[in-house]
Amino acid sequence: MATVKPQIDVTKILRKMSKDLDLLNEKVDAIADAQKKLFTQMMGRKSEEEKPLPEALDVMTLLSLPDHLRKSALAVSKSGKATANDVAKETKRARAVESNYLNQLVMMGHLKRERKGRKVLFFIER
Known about the structure:
Layout: H1 10-42, H2 59-64, H3 67-79, E1 81-82, H4 84-91, H5 95-108, E2 112-116, E3 119-123
Helix pairs in contact: 3-4, 3-5, 4-5
């Protein structure tokens, strides 16, 4: 007695997977946008478009920052443009910690960032 194997429609499965991935990407984007809005609200900023960025880190801005962020901002200020690894060497902290702090400073509007190849450079726009 011969058994009949069910036919598997690979293209149908791939189409379904593609639709599911698109839906998942939309949800992840929505979550990221919500977190960004929440972070800017927590930092007392209306939105990035509404509030101009400071031209440089002045004394009052530096004094208003927590110590850990101030140390990172000063390290970037000394070197001009720096990667998280460069700042980590200066501050004697882990690169991942510095990356987090530098990205917080970017979201707060105190630093700018640009990507050059695989490197992300942080700097103060003057």
